[in-house]
Amino acid sequence: MSLFGGKKRTVRPDYTGLQVQTASSALPIPIVYGTNRIAPNIIWSDGFQTHAQRGKTAGGKGGGRHGVTGYTYSTWIMFGLAEGPVQGIGEVFSGQSVTPFPTNFLSLIPGDTPQQPWGPALARYPAAALPYNGTAYLASPDFDLGSSATISSIAFEVVGRLAGTAGPLGQDADPAALISDFLTNAQYGVGLPASALSGAALFGASRDASYQTYCAALGLGLSPALTDAETANSILARWLRLTNSAAVWSGARLRIVPYGDQVVTGVTHTGASVTYVPDVAPVYDLTDDDVLAAEGDDPVRVARSDPYGLPNVQRVECSDRSHGYTATTVEARDQGAIERYGLKVAGTITAREICALSIGRLVAQLALQRALYIRNTYTFRLSWEFCLLEPMDVVTLTDPGLGLARTPVRITAIEEDEDGLLTITAEEFPRGTATAAAYPTVGATGSAVDRDRAPAPVNAPLIFEPPAALTGGVAQVWIAASGANADPYWGGANVWVSRDGASFVEIGTITDAARQGVLAADLPAPAGPNPDRASTLAVDLSRSGGTLASASEADARDGVTLALVGQELVSFATATLTAPHVYALTYLERGLSGSPAGAHPAGTAFTRLDEAVFRYSVPAAYIGTPLTVKLQAFNIFGGAVQDLATCTAYTVTPIGSGRSGPVAETLAVGSGPDLGLASQAATRSDDFGLASDPYPNFLDLGLASS
Predict the structure, then answer these.
(1) For a surface tag, which of 301, 328, 448, 706 has the fewest beta carbons within 10 Å of its beta carbon?
(2) Residue 352: alpha-carbon gap to chain centroid
(3) How far apart are CA 700 and CA 211, in angstroms?
(4) Which alpha helices (DSSP H) does 355-476 contain, by range?
(5) 401 contacts 407 by C-beta, under 8 angstroms
(6) Could you tell me the CA-to-CA distances from 583 to 301, 461, 520 in Å, in that order?
(7) How far is CA 49 from the centre of its chain?
(8) Total H helices, total E strands in the chain
(9) How confident is the model over 396-454, as pLDDT tens digits?
(10) Which is nearest to 172 in space by CA: 323, 359, 28, 330?
(11) Buried b (16+ CB within 10 A) or exposed e, 89-105
């Protein structure tokens, strides 16, 4: 019977095709400007495949045999992304993991018009190889479906149209160019003629006063991902609100005029300096003589908002690009208004096209100031002689009855009746309220959790065959391991064993990091019988990130704090922290279980023998048989398992010291004590069964690497 034998169990595939959960034929094709995260839609799949996974099967007294333990699956697939062309893919969000775009098994077809069909599909599935003109998609001939034949929650960071033309890091789109493309693009745009946006549409009367210059000076950049059906009017109105501007028809042309009322100088994402100079000179100075009013009526009517009803807190919900585009709310407050009128919170502005929190904070401040400080609304009538006036123009009003003396107001609406008379609606124009300083903004703390992060391999482990006093007479091999460099993502290791060094079987799992380290100073030989009160055992556990705690002297005598120093078994009572992960151990019990009590130089291996140590009972038939051991690391989530082929191989030959004990065995064979630790060609005089260290003068872990 095999050491790892057992009854054979037949494992069959559970699935014969992709379990589709994310495909739909009724979704609109997203439009992505700048850089944003979107979920894909499956547009084609074929070539489903099964892959047998081999390992230790359950059953049998010896713990099972090597065979098929299950299946994983893969498929040919195409993920629809967005209107093309797109510039690229940044990160991939799968489940709770964030990884760079895997160009080795996913291909991006950018969405040109026209574009060729995907080459591999054209060769293998020519009937399904469609060009998908104008649609960007991802394709793979071997997409991993895991063991459930399903696609987990997945999203991609799409670098879309106009990405890199604005924003603090150059990842967003210039709002002026964005709106121009949205309104005029022949493929997916609104259909507005390009001539309607020429000249003054984006640049105003002068370039310095243009909408584009205003956005650049303030550092405003947007990254909208239009994934749902929505009217173009509501989309455009939202973008204009976020950029503190308004759209105005001027004859047959559409103008976009910022509310900005002061000179603003900024630095673009390319490092160039840019200055916005507002065009707010009054067009007319209007008096009561210019205003039309019936006898007995007020020439100018005014409506004033109640300050107790005005908001003094404005919140904006953004997408935090630095934390996986999670929804994050930033807010602006006016503390003076809060203290005077009480807390009044405005409705939250949803702006997922803002992916930089600094932009979101600026937008919130501008919206708050506009809502809080523009309180008066004026209404008056003018004759047709003033027909050249347009919304967003600034005029002054003089009305002694209202106490107005060349008071500037901004026109917001003009209505013309059948007689050519104009009804004007205007708002007060307090200079400075349409401009805000940029303040630092802190979003979510921490970082995104990557469940697929590869762990560090194990530190050189301790493979130790303890004496009978520690095993109750059972022949065992103990293995202590930890993650290299105290890697916080190291979650443990699968233990694999081979008798021929080629075919490995899994015998168990290490789930706790052992407290491994080295002596930080020389340890002298004990001067007398236990306890050793004169010596201090200085240990450095930095490589494993281990910690030690004090115990009672009775615990030390009973071996509760048992540790292995070189080949000597010791225990301690007091552990004093002297530096991070460095301890001074005192009240020592030396030479326990018949191990040799002697001097140990600095750099000698130290391992705490506790519940983190993996214990394997060796069958009698394999006493004296050389075994090869590999420790396959995995991360704290149980994933990202290390490739077994890359694991270091260690050799050990069990001698059954747990049955006979090292002292009895020494008397029987007439040789030095050997606790059955992993052997290597050369050993030191104080080895006590531990192999010499491949790193001289640093650490002796009792192993031989292949």
Answers:
(1) 706
(2) 18
(3) 70
(4) 357-373, 468-471
(5) no
(6) 82, 21, 9
(7) 31
(8) 11, 36
(9) 999 998 999 999 999 999 999 999 999 999 999 998 888 887 666 655 555 556 777 89
(10) 359
(11) bbbbbbeebbeebeeee
The alpha carbon torsion through 195, 196, 199, 201 (nearest 10 deg) reads -150
CB atoms within 10 A of CB 390: 15
The per-residue pLDDT for 444 is 55
Taking the CA atoms of residue 607, residue 608, residue 611 and residue 613 in that order, the dihedral angle to the nearest 10 degrees is: 10
Instruction: Say if strands 568-579 and 614-617 run parallel, antiparallel, or are unpaired.
Output: unpaired
Distance of CA 141 to the CA centre of its chain: 27
Question: What H or E segment, with its residue span, contains residue 345?
Answer: none
Strands (E), 524-646: 537-540, 563-565, 568-579, 582-589, 605-608, 614-617, 627-635
| Pair of tokens at residue 696 | 């001289």
Instruction: Determine the pLDDT at residue 690.
Output: 36
| C-beta separation of 525 from 513 below 8 A | no
Q: How many CB atoms lie within 10 A of CB 120?
A: 16
Cα three-residue angle 382-293-303, rounded to 5 degrees: 85
Residue 119: pLDDT over 70: yes
Residue 197: C-alpha distances to residues 176, 185, 189, 688 (Å): 11, 12, 13, 87
Task: State which H helix or E strand residue 508 sits in.
Answer: strand 505-510
pLDDT of residue 700: 31
Tell me phi and psi for residue 108, to 5 degrees: -95, 120
Q: Would you say how long the chain is, in residues?
A: 706
Question: Residue 640 and residue 455: Cα distance in Å, rounded?
Answer: 7
What is the torsional sign of CA 468, 470, 475, 481? negative
Residue 402 vs residues 124, 141, 423: alpha-carbon distances, Å: 81, 75, 19
- Return the bridge partners of 179, or none: none
Contact 689, 702 (CB under 8 A): yes
pTM: 0.67
In 273-353, beta strands by DSSP E: 273-276, 285-286, 301-304, 313-320, 326-333, 349-350
Cβ atoms of 477 and 654 within 8 Å: the answer is yes
For the record, the structure tokens of 62 come out as 């010896």
- As a whole number of angstroms, the distance between CA 424 and CA 201 comes to 23
Running DSSP on this structure, what letter comes out for residue 300? S
Give the three-class secondary structure for 29.
coil
Strand order through the sheet with 107-109: 41-56, 66-83, 135-146, 107-109
Q: Tell me the per-residue pLDDT of 128-163, one tens digit each, with 9 for 90 and over.
A: 899 999 999 999 999 988 888 888 889 999 999 999
Check: CB of residue 372 under 8 Å from CB of residue 335: no
- Tens digits of per-residue pLDDT, 537-556? 999 999 999 999 999 999 99
At 597, the amino acid letter reads A
Q: What is the pLDDT of residues 594-615, one digit of tens each?
A: 899 999 999 999 999 999 999 9
**pLDDT at residue 87 above 80?**
yes
CA distances from 596 to 526, 565, 593, 603 (A): 11, 10, 9, 18
Instruction: State the average pLDDT for the chain.
Output: 85
CA distance 331 to 348: 9
CA-to-CA dists, residue 227 to 113, 133, 348, 601, angstroms = 21, 19, 21, 67
Q: Could you give phi then psi for residue 571, rounded to 5 degrees?
A: -140, 165
Question: Would you call 664 helix, strand, or coil by DSSP?
Answer: helix
Cα-based angle 217, 219, 222 (whole degrees, multiple of 5): 130
- Give the SS3 label for residue 580: coil
How far is 15 from 13, CA to CA, in rounded Å? 6
